[in-house]
Amino acid sequence: MTLGIKLDRIEPGEPQQNGSHERMHPDKKNEMENKVEGDILAHRKKFDCWRKEFNNERPHEALGMRSPAMVDTESEDQYDGIIADLEYPDSIRPQPDEQQNICFGN
């Protein structure tokens, strides 16, 4: 938010509102579940290969049978490395929990 990124959320419990993204989950599960032996690094390597194919080679129906890489464009916005301080309304106070995760409460 500080960088001007706008959140685009779906309603809780309504995955059909984000169908093109949700479609990826069963593909990933069907193609990778129980098919990787080894430690976390072996799993990461297999997933990285899968992700590269998914994003660069596979046509996606939601993208007019193009790959995500074919329709991806570089943002016109440039990050200058400076993050402005967040300002919250008085009704919201960020409250770190025991693990220093930020929670919002009154």
Structural summary, described in words:
With 106 residues, the chain is mainly alpha-helical. The chain has a domain of 35 residues. The chain is 32% helix and 8% strand. It is built from 4 helices and 2 strands. It has a two-stranded antiparallel ribbon with strand order 1-2. A hairpin with a 5-residue loop joins strand 1 and strand 2. The longest helix has 17 residues. The radius of gyration is 19 Å and the shape is extended. The model has no long low-confidence stretch (mean pLDDT 82).
Counted beta strands = 2
What portion of residues is helical?
Answer: 25-40%
Shape: extended
**What's the SSE pattern?**
HHHHEE
Radius of gyration based on Cα positions: 19 Å
Task: Specify the structural class.
Answer: mainly alpha
Sheet with most strands: 2 strands, antiparallel
Q: Numbering strands along the chain, what is their spatial order in the largest sheet?
A: 1-2
How do you describe this structure in short?
The chain is mainly α and 106 residues long.
Task: Give the tags.
mainly alpha; 4 helices; extended
Helices and strands, with pairings:
Elements: H1 19-22, H2 24-32, H3 40-56, H4 68-71, E1 93-96, E2 102-105
